[in-house]
Amino acid sequence: MVQVLDESGELVGDPPDLADDELVALYRHLRLARHFDERAVNLQRQGRMGTYPPLAGQEAAQVGSAMALDDRDWIAPSYREHAAVHVHGLSLSDILLYWMGHGAGGWRTDVNVLPAAVPIATQVPHTTGLALASKLRGHDAVACAYFGDGATSEGDFHEGLNVAGVFDVPAVFLCNNNGWAISVPRERQTASPTLAGKAVAYGIDGVQVDGMDPLATYEVTRAAVEKARTPGERPRPTLIEAVQYRFGAHTTADDPTVYRDEAEVAEWRRRDPIPRLERFLRETGRLDDETVEGIETSVREQVSEAIERAENTARPEPDAMFDDVYAEPSPALRDQRAALHRLRDRHGDDAFLKE
Amino acid sequence: MSTDTQTETQNLTLVQAVRDGLRTEMQRDGDVIVLGEDVGKNGGVFRATEGLYEEFGDDRVIDTPLAESGIVGTSIGMAAYGLRPVPEIQFMGFIYPAFDQIISHAARLRTRTRGRFTCPMVVRAPYGGGIRAPEHHSESKEAFFVHEPGLKVVIPSTPADTKGLLASAIRDPDPVIFLEPKLIYRAFREDVPTGEHTVPLGEAAVRREGSDVSVYTWGAMTRPTMEAAENLAAEGVECEVIDLRTLSPLDRETIVDSFEKTGRAAVVHEAPRTGGLGGEITAILQEESLLYQEAPIERITGFDTPVPLYALEDYYLPSPTRIEDGIREVVDFR
Fold first, then answer.
1. Fewest C-beta atoms under 10 Å: which of A308, B53, B89, B163?
2. Which of B105, B136, B137, B197 is catalytic?
3. What is the pTM of this model?
4. Which residues on A lie below 8 Å from B309 (Cβ)?
């Protein structure tokens, strides 16, 4: 398993070729992701947001890997990649809006991020398709899929990787192995000793990395991107297994105490990516109390502003549900939209809304 | 309606009735096996299988890898071998990877082997909207399965029916798609017979008698439909509310008898309108009872859009107000 920083933040491998300010930016993104996640869980608890899938514990794999991508690259996320898609260009309020039930959230026209894939592993073959298209067009954009350990049990995972291997597509398949698919532990998901080992079956490289080591996840993804981005040569896909842990529940609707031992959580908390990177940056003189304090303040402000922006976004007009079902609305859709208008005129919105 | 005679009951929610139904059938028949994602130690994400793992062990309550096609395909093999698997799909919106197995194999194993192999299994899945859930958690796509010969499709609307219909589905020699209205999993309680309790498949229930208009519905829409019917009764319009309970096979006799009494009909479902069951019920009435028809048949349904995220889902689902308006159209037609 590739590691650059050990659990205490001691350097045990070659640090990646990142400038001091990039390393501090990586740290800031980890802190931002953690604070965003805490606030999002609280918003759900307060009834200000719907069901939300927390990411705490998984910041390093998301931020480290996403920082290894360029703007022209693509991300096909699952539903838990709030940090990765933010690093790639979605605003925090874009992300919050989606979980607040607005169709306008979760995507942007100017960012190469597909909408969150809520069914499991369906984004894996999409990634193969994005990468194949980039290759056919003669572009050098790389496509990166994010998915969990549970996804490796789905047919779509195997089909997507198989096609990717056959066609030499410029793709990175990043498995955030967080140990649990809701209540089912990794050991009951597959009898394979590692998930990275599944790459062998598709004729592609597999690499296992400490997913709570931000420097290692950056470096491993960077190498995979480089192998995929080879204009004029033969690009090759890579399967990365980032071994990590979700500290919290699968979603805010889940209670992990039913199936998980608290001692296990405590054990994994010792590998928390944030103090790990912080210690390394402090000891190498890249970070001091003042900078950390400044980052803490700015992260809090940034998340508060994003929440305010999202909450001040007006409820979408009911018409929005009829928009974009087709490029041209069908006659039936036009009729149904008109019928809803008549009903609202006759009864007002209170006759529909339960809140 | 019910095939048992005992009177002892428990006051249960709908989701507790699912559990009670599974438990009772598992006690009765050692071949009944529950399998799916999180059904074991976790007791199901809706707690529908809570306690079964502890009572029956991990050979009969199996936590599977996250693989819908694998779960249903494995169940088909188990059923062909002689067991009675009851696979759970966590949400109906996640059933599509298993669609191939259900449609291509479960539905036609009997036909293709001229009865040598059969597929007595029950695929359970919570369906429907209204709980402010994320994307792909609110689907109501019963029509996909009703369209497939060889399957039976059941949607209960009360706790007692849930237990009784589930028991009948498990005992049924053919594959049954059993869709649970999660909106009303915990909305109310009802007395449910303890011990063995069955409600026959293929029989609709008359939830309310009335002479002015027949209103056909099922599952989670039964409650807003009943509310609309009570509101209309205050205006002097008497609705006969038919809860279909089994969508395949449809209870044509009850559907037609009610219409021939009232001469007017409306269908209420939350699934999209086009290609929904409302069209099939309308066709049955046209075929069987054209000369009784006094007004166009109204469909009060979800829209032909993906179920919107929750900021708009209350506009998508038929509300009592919308249902009342639709029924008035039928009743006022002269």
1. A308
2. B137
3. 0.95
4. 98, 101-103
